[in-house]
Design a protein that fits this description.
Blueprint: H1 3-12, H2 17-32, E1 37-41, E2 45-49, E3 53-59, E4 63-68, E5 91-96, H3 103-130
Antiparallel strand pairs: 1-2, 2-3, 3-4, 4-5
Protein backbone atom coordinates (compact mmCIF):
# COMPACT_ATOMS: atom_id res chain seq x y z
CA UNK A 1 0.00 0.00 0.00
CA UNK A 2 1.16 3.53 -0.68
CA UNK A 3 1.22 6.15 2.11
CA UNK A 4 -2.06 7.78 1.05
CA UNK A 5 -3.83 4.41 1.22
CA UNK A 6 -2.33 3.74 4.67
CA UNK A 7 -3.63 7.12 5.84
CA UNK A 8 -7.05 6.32 4.32
CA UNK A 9 -7.13 3.07 6.32
CA UNK A 10 -5.96 4.80 9.49
CA UNK A 11 -8.75 7.37 9.24
CA UNK A 12 -11.34 4.72 8.33
CA UNK A 13 -10.42 2.85 11.51
CA UNK A 14 -11.30 5.90 13.60
CA UNK A 15 -15.07 5.57 13.67
CA UNK A 16 -15.73 8.41 16.09
CA UNK A 17 -15.22 12.18 15.90
CA UNK A 18 -11.45 11.73 15.67
CA UNK A 19 -11.76 10.15 12.21
CA UNK A 20 -13.86 12.97 10.81
CA UNK A 21 -11.57 15.55 12.44
CA UNK A 22 -8.42 13.96 11.02
CA UNK A 23 -10.07 13.65 7.61
CA UNK A 24 -10.99 17.34 7.73
CA UNK A 25 -7.45 18.34 8.74
CA UNK A 26 -6.02 16.24 5.94
CA UNK A 27 -8.30 17.94 3.43
CA UNK A 28 -7.22 21.38 4.65
CA UNK A 29 -3.54 20.43 4.38
CA UNK A 30 -3.87 18.94 0.91
CA UNK A 31 -6.06 21.78 -0.34
CA UNK A 32 -3.65 24.41 0.99
CA UNK A 33 -0.78 22.85 -0.94
CA UNK A 34 -1.68 20.40 -3.72
CA UNK A 35 2.04 19.56 -4.03
CA UNK A 36 2.16 18.34 -0.42
CA UNK A 37 3.66 14.86 -0.15
CA UNK A 38 1.80 12.39 2.06
CA UNK A 39 4.02 9.97 3.92
CA UNK A 40 3.59 7.20 6.49
CA UNK A 41 6.39 7.46 9.03
CA UNK A 42 7.36 5.91 12.31
CA UNK A 43 5.20 2.83 11.77
CA UNK A 44 1.91 4.67 11.79
CA UNK A 45 2.10 8.45 11.65
CA UNK A 46 0.44 10.39 8.83
CA UNK A 47 3.02 12.93 7.71
CA UNK A 48 2.84 15.80 5.23
CA UNK A 49 6.00 17.16 3.66
CA UNK A 50 7.07 19.87 1.26
CA UNK A 51 10.86 20.34 1.17
CA UNK A 52 10.87 18.71 4.60
CA UNK A 53 8.25 17.73 7.14
CA UNK A 54 5.48 20.29 7.51
CA UNK A 55 3.21 18.46 9.94
CA UNK A 56 2.29 15.11 11.40
CA UNK A 57 -1.03 14.07 12.91
CA UNK A 58 -2.15 11.39 15.31
CA UNK A 59 -5.39 10.42 16.97
CA UNK A 60 -5.06 9.97 20.71
CA UNK A 61 -7.62 8.70 23.21
CA UNK A 62 -9.35 12.05 23.67
CA UNK A 63 -7.81 14.32 21.05
CA UNK A 64 -6.33 14.69 17.59
CA UNK A 65 -2.86 16.20 17.64
CA UNK A 66 -1.35 18.08 14.71
CA UNK A 67 2.33 18.77 15.22
CA UNK A 68 4.37 21.17 13.12
CA UNK A 69 8.00 20.10 12.76
CA UNK A 70 9.31 23.67 12.75
CA UNK A 71 6.51 25.14 14.82
CA UNK A 72 8.79 27.08 17.16
CA UNK A 73 10.02 29.05 14.14
CA UNK A 74 6.57 29.86 12.76
CA UNK A 75 4.52 32.97 13.45
CA UNK A 76 1.28 32.06 15.20
CA UNK A 77 -0.70 35.31 15.53
CA UNK A 78 -3.97 33.38 15.98
CA UNK A 79 -2.47 31.35 18.84
CA UNK A 80 -3.41 27.96 17.38
CA UNK A 81 -0.49 26.22 19.04
CA UNK A 82 -1.61 24.97 22.43
CA UNK A 83 0.92 22.23 23.18
CA UNK A 84 4.69 21.85 23.06
CA UNK A 85 5.14 25.55 23.67
CA UNK A 86 8.29 25.08 25.75
CA UNK A 87 10.28 23.20 23.12
CA UNK A 88 12.75 24.73 20.71
CA UNK A 89 11.46 23.04 17.56
CA UNK A 90 8.04 21.33 17.54
CA UNK A 91 4.69 22.97 18.28
CA UNK A 92 1.34 21.20 18.36
CA UNK A 93 -2.36 21.86 18.14
CA UNK A 94 -4.48 19.57 20.31
CA UNK A 95 -8.03 19.31 19.02
CA UNK A 96 -10.70 17.93 21.35
CA UNK A 97 -14.19 16.72 20.60
CA UNK A 98 -16.38 19.69 19.75
CA UNK A 99 -13.47 22.03 18.94
CA UNK A 100 -13.73 24.02 15.73
CA UNK A 101 -10.65 24.30 13.54
CA UNK A 102 -9.75 27.86 12.56
CA UNK A 103 -9.18 27.01 8.89
CA UNK A 104 -7.74 30.34 7.74
CA UNK A 105 -5.24 30.37 10.63
CA UNK A 106 -4.30 26.72 10.01
CA UNK A 107 -3.75 27.43 6.31
CA UNK A 108 -1.52 30.36 7.26
CA UNK A 109 0.58 28.08 9.49
CA UNK A 110 0.85 25.47 6.73
CA UNK A 111 1.99 28.08 4.20
CA UNK A 112 4.50 29.51 6.67
CA UNK A 113 5.92 26.03 7.31
CA UNK A 114 6.29 25.41 3.57
CA UNK A 115 8.01 28.77 3.12
CA UNK A 116 10.40 28.02 5.98
CA UNK A 117 11.20 24.56 4.61
CA UNK A 118 11.76 26.00 1.13
CA UNK A 119 14.11 28.68 2.46
CA UNK A 120 16.07 26.07 4.43
CA UNK A 121 16.29 23.87 1.34
CA UNK A 122 17.59 26.79 -0.75
CA UNK A 123 20.07 27.57 2.01
CA UNK A 124 21.36 23.98 1.95
CA UNK A 125 21.77 24.13 -1.83
CA UNK A 126 23.55 27.47 -1.62
CA UNK A 127 25.88 26.19 1.12
CA UNK A 128 26.76 23.09 -0.89
CA UNK A 129 27.49 25.10 -4.02
CA UNK A 130 29.74 27.52 -2.09
CA UNK A 131 31.99 24.79 -0.73
CA UNK A 132 35.29 24.50 -2.57
CA UNK A 133 35.88 21.34 -4.48
CA UNK A 134 38.43 19.13 -2.79
CA UNK A 135 41.02 17.72 -5.12
CA UNK A 136 42.55 14.37 -4.41
CA UNK A 137 46.27 14.25 -4.68
Amino acid sequence: MNPSELIDNYIAGLTDWRGSTLSHLRAIIRDTDPEMLEEWKWMGTPTWSHNGIVAIANAHKNKVKVTFAQGANLPDPSKLFNNGLGGNRWRAIDIYEGDQVDEPALRTLIRAAITLNTLKEKDKTRTKSNKPNKKRI
